[in-house]
Amino acid sequence: MDSKKFIDICKEAVVAYANENFENTDQVQITEEDVFVVWSCKTLQNNKALLSTTVSDGMYYELTHNGDKSEVYLDAYKKWENKCIKV
Q: What InterPro entries does the annotation carry (predicted)?
């Protein structure tokens, strides 16, 4: 799968997941225009991307394409803290 097709699938998956899991009281729905790619790479037949949305809910999404099985896996994470560690 080429990178553009993978990113399109990722954005569709994030929109579907986010819209299904938003709090009902928030009354928020997003489109693919609200999803952006933070990072992506392709290695051999596999792809991986980190995406987020314009919604300030602290969520980010990791999607992985398994080229051997033609499957895409979605992991959803919530950012709890951003902490500076001096080294």
A: DUF6275 (IPR046242)
